[in-house]
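Two proteins follow. First one:
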Amino acid sequence: MDPLLIVLIVVVVLAVAGGIWFYAGRNRGGEVPPEIGPHQPTSADDVLLAPPQERPSAPGERPTEPTLEQPAPEAAAPATLERPESIPGRMQRLRSRLAGAGGFGRAILAVLSRGDLTEADWEEIEDTLLTSDLGIEVTTSLMDELRTQAKVLDTSDPEAIRGVLREELLKLVDPAMDRSLNLDKPTPAAGWNAADGEPAAAVLMVGVNGTGKTTTCGKLARVLVADGKTAVMGAADTFRAAAADQLTTWGQRVGVEVVRSEREGADPASVAYDATRAAARDGVDVVLVDTAGRLQNKAGLMDELGKIKRVMEKVAPVGEVLLVLDATTGRTACARRRSSPRPSVSPVSC
């Protein structure tokens, strides 16, 4: 057979087979597979909800826009208010802390535990009193009394001298002195409108920077609330950054309202006056006013503190002025006390 004829036959056969394959493929593409029904989704877009059919709007009517349902707001968890422990528990904790911080007592006991006291021991006791910042007058009177009692008792026994020293120190601090806060409702100032409420007992917090006035104010409010009293705190420290925020945090912790100014650098006397009026309006028992730190030798700042007190007394007399001191201040505390404003009804001597 002619090779050319064979090639021609092969080409014809391939062309016929290709045409049959192409025709069959087009027919399969137009059919729906039997396993996919007419109502079964075939993609993620098929399961989405169809948009709602819009109602034809009347002439002049604005078309309504679809609204999304807002999730219901979750109920806020109730704030946990702090409650201090009982008074006996607080006193026991205070005594335990003071017992571990008695450097003065340990130094005196170290001298008294040596046996019979010599002249060098007496001088060491005097040096210890002076370095503990008791002051010249207190140290001199203590040493004179100790030497006198040692001669009267005719003894140099350390235990006897220790007993005398304890009695003299107790006389200095006067345990019988009334140190409770005056929280009685004051008499309203002249011209006060009774319709504005009954003034609350006012407590003004003063002191230098960094002694803990704001913290003391918050802790005092917590104790008052635990004792069944109501209180309002005034954030009159408008100088220190975040002082009002710190006092507000204390108010949230103990459940006490805080009166503050949203404007930085506001007049502190105005804030104190607003707090005093708010306490009278709400009928609370005590208003605590926090102030900025002021050095006792800055006459201008101390005059401003006096202005705060005078403005508060347009409502009622200030019953307490609390001078907050650091435990290591020493004799400087008396100078600060003499320059601080006096309470109207319960002056304290230093």
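Second one, unrelated to the first:
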Amino acid sequence: MKQYLVLGLLAVLLFAGCTTPSTGPGANVSNSAMHMNQTTSSFQVDQAKIGHVISVIDKFLSLQGLPPQQPKIETTQLIKLTYTVQGQQVAFYVTPDYQNVVVGKPTSVAQIEQFVEQSSKPTNLSVPLAIDSAAHIRGNKSAPIVVIEFGDYQCPYCVLFAQQTYEAFLKKYVDTGKVEFAFWDFPLPFHQMAMPASIAAECAAKQGKYWEMHDALYLNQSLQDKSKQLSEQLIQNIAKNIGLNMTAFDACRNDTSVRSGISALESRAQQNYQVGGTPTFLIYSTKKLSDAQIQKLVKDFQASAVRGKVVIGSDGKAGVIVSGALPINVFDQIVADMSG
């Protein structure tokens, strides 16, 4: 967790995860909806007000381990371009030298203040930190740390995690008994093959081959080769290759109760842990952490580029909820904080 957060005021955030569709550059942009507002009048800087803004930004930067500094103050007039993207208005702000663009809505000072306040303490949840009985478990059930992945088989970021980090994670933590791993289905509605794939994995589980199906669904996909993207044919091929009884497999996939069970599992993820995208990970210690350990978690998250938060369950267990195709070093830091 050594990378620093990028200020939303100054750059476009690149979200490393699948979420519900959002507005942004590059999709269905209507140039006919462009507007330009430009002024050249100068104005006097209110020293008291700008002083307050600087103090707020200093607090934000301090969360990233950066010292306070006196910023250079300049008055400029931005050129605002407004586009219609998927029926919504998206603003682009161009600097007067025409060399830089700020994308999206400006971040208010109040939003930064709120972020600073929330980042200084963990979030208390109304539910315990626990694996749902309908999720699938891998590894030592007595492990001191639990990692739950909320995943979608068609999400490209889930595929990236599976193909770039998953094997190393299993060898380092699950196979050694240090971590209990669980997969919690979270098929997103705009991924047409996500639910069929989740159903296929559940039906493979009924024949004792859940993890064989789970792993193959991810590892046999290609993000570059369209002929190897998730499809019905790929699911059928995997089922045959891992030796499933195809008659029983197909009958199970037609059982509407399997789909209903997955939908209910997804709803519990949303309600209990506010999961909204994939992959999302809930990582927690099965033992109560000391106040010092919890503060170490908070501090590390404040200083990281990882999207997430420290949480305390209603059972007193402490953990983190993080999003994105996490590299192994992120798990290293979290496990170290919870074990130290």
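SUMMARY FIELD: The longest strand covers residues 79-85. Confidence is low (pLDDT under 50) at residues 1-15, 21-41.
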